[in-house]
Design a protein that fits this description.
globular
């Protein structure tokens, strides 16, 4: 029997791959990471916007807003401006790296095959996946706490379980979250479309609840917590880096979602509509309510789950917690499960399909949060807090991941002139090397400099490389790749 050969065809602004036996039998291919077909590219600008609303309204967003004042020393007004500016900046890599996903219908790990090699793509992909699994664990913990609060309000004696109730909530949430993703991209699209308006209602409801109890003008005039006379930019730039770094991971794997967009216009406009002002709304709410929480409930509280739990009405507590659970599921689904699922498939496409990748993501998420679960069960004692880990992790991992974002942008737009050979991306020795050395040089140099800056510490001017790692890392990674990478002689459509 004659082996059929794969072909490419251009449909409008999309390139579609008709899979033949040559690709179907390739060890680098399975149907779940194959280019999306025309009938799968259904996401409008509103679907993309809903995706971002669903991801942006979450507990970590709220807490990051509060961390800008409590941890980074900014005033409330400075923090709000930082949030808006950071999310306008992060739109640049997000929209640019979404382009190859929309044009070719390919997920992030397959995009990375062009700049890091067919096998080499597993290295940056796996780094991204581990971070996502960590975030999956953190978000699942927040969702589990919300479930625990709901059960405490409606089930007599549940409070007697203490930390055991929170752990049970963790695993209930885990099962619900995994179940959504296993149902596929259409289930994710419908979840985000359902969640987005509800989550906006929660944010507005929190603001309405707090407004009569606080003076907004007094909160906005709250001074910075940094020492008097300390330079503003010394605090602003690390805070901006952390806020931009909040979506540093999504700036890499945005093709995982843009591959379903109807057009480039849909993904660009959808991201512009959905991200900056949603982040300003909810992170800004975190800034204001964290600053005002002492007046509201008598102590400073940086997370909305605990704050909502202090509302006197059990009915409103239960209703708000249900919304928090929905918010966390929508964020976790899109931001923290889809990416590692595609990564694990990229490593072994013939052994790991989408469902197996989802389960593997969930198991790793449990493992990475095992210390916190055991602490809540009373099995171990540790001074490490989720909040402290979260605040420090943001700055560090954003500095390590962002060179990849710069490399991806430069590779697609400057080195390859927006042309990939989509057939060769799914085959060995067909146009792309197994390991692309320029990609690793451009990645390892900024990472090495970041690690060196961390070791040297803040006594050196060089430490600013670490503090401002998102900017320095992405620019340096992109520049090195541009000068090191050889421009291909030619590429397919």
């Amino acid at each position: 029997m004659t082996e059929t050969v794969s072909t490419l065809r251009t449909v409008g602004e999309h390139v579609e791959l008709d899979v033949g036996d040559d690709i179907a039998n390739s060890p680098r291919y399975n149907e779940d990471i194959a280019p999306t077909r025309a009938e799968q590219r259904t996401w409008s600008r509103w679907n993309v916007a809903s995706l971002w609303v669903g991801m942006a309204i979450c507990v970590p967003t709220y807490m990051l807003g509060g961390a800008l004042t409590a941890g980074f020393g900014l005033s409330v007004a400075e923090a709000l401006w930082t949030i808006l500016l950071a999310n306008i900046i992060v739109l640049i890599p997000l929209t640019l790296n979404a382009y190859p996903g929309t044009r070719y219908g390919i997920p992030c790990p397959v995009v990375l095959r062009a700049s890091f090699g067919i096998i080499g793509s597993n290295v940056p992909s796996l780094i991204r996946a581990v971070v996502a699994c960590g975030w999956f664990g953190i978000q699942t913990l927040f969702g589990g706490i919300a479930i625990d609060i709901v059960f405490d309000a409606i089930i007599p004696g549940w409070s007697n379980l203490g930390g055991v109730g929170e752990v049970l909530g963790f695993f209930i949430f885990w099962i619900a979250n995994i179940a959504v993703v296993i149902r596929g991209s259409e289930a994710i699209k419908h979840l985000e479309a359902l969640a987005a308006p509800m989550l906006l209602v929660v944010a507005i409801g929190l603001a309405i609840w707090a407004t009569p109890k606080i003076s907004l003008s007094e909160v906005l005039s709250t001074p910075a917590t940094r020492q008097a006379g300390e330079p503003f930019f010394g605090y602003f730039l690390p805070a901006l880096t952390a806020m931009v770094g909040f979506w540093a991971t999504l700036s890499l794997n945005i093709p995982d979602f843009s591959r379903y967009a109807r057009s480039q216009r849909a993904q660009v406009v959808g991201q512009i509509i959905g991200l900056p002002f949603t982040m300003l709304l909810f992170a800004g709410l975190g800034v204001i309510l964290t600053a005002a929480s002492g007046e509201l409930v008598g102590e400073t509280i940086s997370d909305p789950v605990t704050l909502i739990g202090r509302i006197e009405s059990p009915v409103w507590v239960v209703l708000a917690m249900l919304f928090i659970i929905l918010a966390t599921i929508s964020t976790n689904t899109a931001a923290n499960i889809v990416s590692p699922t595609n990564v694990f498939q990229n490593i072994a496409p013939k052994l790991i399909n989408e469902n197996k990748g989802v389960i593997l993501t969930g198991i790793i998420g449990i493992a990475l949060m095992s210390w916190e679960l055991m602490k809540r069960l009373g099995w171990i004692e540790t001074e490490v807090s989720v909040e402290g880990l979260y605040a420090n992790w943001l700055l560090t991992y954003s500095s390590l991941l962002v060179p990849i974002a710069g490399i991806m942008v430069v590779d697609y737009f400057l080195v390859r002139d927006q042309r990939y050979d989509a057939i060769a991306l799914y085959k060995d020795n067909a146009g792309y090397p197994a390991w692309n050395l320029p990609g690793f040089i451009a990645f390892l140099v900024p990472v090495g400099l970041t690690i060196a800056a961390m070791v040297i510490g803040d006594s050196s001017w060089f430490y600013s490389f670490y503090e401002n790692g998102w900017f320095t890392g992405s620019i340096l990674g992109g520049l090195i790749y541009y000068f090191v990478a050889a421009k291909p002689a030619g590429s397919s459509t």
